[in-house]
Structure formats: C-alpha cells, structure tokens
Amino acid sequence: MSKFVYSLNIKQHTPLIHFQSSQAGATLRATELKPKLDRFLLQKVKDLPCVINANGHRSLEYKVKINSTNTNISIPKAYVKKSNTDPAIYQAPYFADAHKSVMSVNTLQIEFFSYNSQLLEAIKEYIDYFFVYENFGTRQSKGFGSFTRADISDAQINKILAAHENPVFVLGTCKAYKDAFIKIDSFYKKLKMGINKPYFKSLLFRYMCDTYKIGWEKKFIKQNFPEVIHGEHQPLVCRDDREFRYIRALLGLAEHNEFRPNGGKKQVRIKSKDGIERFKSPLIFKVIHSKIYILFNKSYQDIMDREFTFSLGKKSADIKTPSQFDMYEFLKFVAKHENVSEVK
Fold first, then answer.
1. Of 312, 194, 168, whose CA–CA distance to 247 is shortest?
2. With contact defined as beta carbons under 8 Å apart, do 324 and 213 qualify?
3. Is 214 helix (H, G, I), strand (E, B) or coil?
4. Tens digits of residue pLDDT in 121-176
5. Where are the alpha helices (DSSP H) in the chain?
6. How far apart are CA 186 and CA 339, in angstroms?
7. Quick one: angle between helices 203-212 and 177-192, nearest 10?
C-alpha cells in the first residue's frame, strides 16, 4: 500500500435512502462524505492546509474512493400493514415512498489519497469518531445511513461516545434495523407531537410546561383557527402558562400543520418572519450493532426567540419560539419517563 493512501473497511448498520438506488453499486457517496469529513476535521485539528473556493468554503486536499460489491434495495414506508409479506418493505419514520433505500451486504472499502502526510494522519486519528457521530443520506437524523469501521469494538464505541461534545443517551436495544426504526418512530412521536391512540402527551410539551410554564402552539392554533378543531381530545393545556410559544420548532421546522376536521383537510401554513426556511432536528439517532443511541447538537439555539406567522386562508397570527431551552435537561427529563439512559 502506498504511503499516500489510507484505507479501511466500514460496515453499514441501517439502510441509506439513495436517489440513485436503482443503479448498480449504489452506496455511500464520496460527494456527501468528503464535505462532511472536511468540516469535521477542520473543527478537530488546527492548521490543516486547505483550499478556499469562490463561495468561501474550505476544503481539504485529498481524494476519496468508495468500493461497493453488493447491495440490497428496500422500501421505507411510514406505515406497513401486518399482512404485507414483501420483505423489501419496512416501517420507518419516512414519508416519501418514491425513494428506495440501499443496504450493503458486504463491508465497504474506503480509500483516502493525499500527498499531505499530516492530513492522512488526521483522517486516521478521527475517522472512527466521524463515523460514530454521523449518518448519511436522506432522513439521516432518524437513523438512516449509519456506518462504522467494520471491526470497531463496543468498548471503542463507548469511548468515542463519551468524548462527544454533548452527552449521549441510549434508547435501548433492537434485534435488527427494522425493529430500530419502529422504536425510533414511536419514541420521536412521544417526544415531539404526542400520540393519539393510545393517548400520550408530548414529552416536549410536558417539559416546557413544567420547566418554563409555557403553553404550546397547538392550543394557540385552535384558538386562532377554530375551524381546524376535530376529535374528542381537547388541546393540551399548561394550566399555569403565561404565554404560548412555538415549541415543536426546537426539534425541527415544519412547513405546515395538517388537521382533518369532519373528514376534510386543512393546512395551517408556517413561515418565518426572519427568513428561516429550513431547520433540521438537532437530534440524531445512531444505530450501531444492537443499540440505538441519541446524539444532539446545539443548533436549536439558533432558532430560539424567533417569530413565525401561522396562516389559514386570509387569517394569520404570529408566535415566537421559546427563549429558553436546554436539550440536555430535556433528555434527562425524558429519561425519567421512558426507557432511556445516559451513556457514561
């Protein structure tokens, strides 16, 4: 092996939603991996030689080659009937059925080529951290596209998780990725919006009510747009609330909230008054071996105390996101109510 090349084998733990899934050898793309790895290394290592392009983005001078030999194609759906016997279809927190996912049967080989020895050493030192912390492809925050070094041990994984910039939690174990996705889907609904049947109050609502005495946007919507009211359940109420806030935005923005009164459909549109168009969830679910880990970043701080306009037809009303929130404290609150524990 050339001194200018560093290679390793990686194992895929969950399917990767791939826009070119029908092509032979479709797998993790170097065009996604390299920019993410560049940003990761530049955060971890000072004074790495880099190139600055016309847009001001920094990139490192190395090439990536990913070799794939065999993949299975499957179809993620938000709901799968028990009677469905197609082994390619599985339930997952995903709603665009036009896309398919790919899963490598064998390990993948990645080769990094660079004439810069400092850069290759940095890749060697941090590549395991990178793969443990990151997922790839569409819906990566919900556990899709999880990879690690093929021969990484559980002890090494725990050491890397303990070194994460924020505390990491574990959402129990799973037999296979299909079980993991069902578990992630159910858990995330409990976190953000709650569940109708059987009725379960949103943990985010309960935390914001208990900690900051803030009511959530669902009651605000129904007060301002009563035509969306449906069903037997009354909106959740924080009895001591001082104000309403758009709290679900902390776990990711939506373009609209959909309601189905009297068998119809109404959409309350959501638009930022500060020009914020996208904000993905700061939570990332990482499936490795038989465990589901919950990692988070502090990107939610960028969206705090921002104003949004909710509209339905010609009517509109403005509401702000919370001015106070701590993800770590929230997950500790969640751990008291669900089978979640902090990785030590």
1. 194
2. no
3. strand
4. 999 999 999 999 999 998 999 999 999 999 999 999 999 999 999 999 999 999 99
5. 30-44, 117-133, 154-162, 177-192, 203-212, 217-224, 327-337
6. 12
7. 40
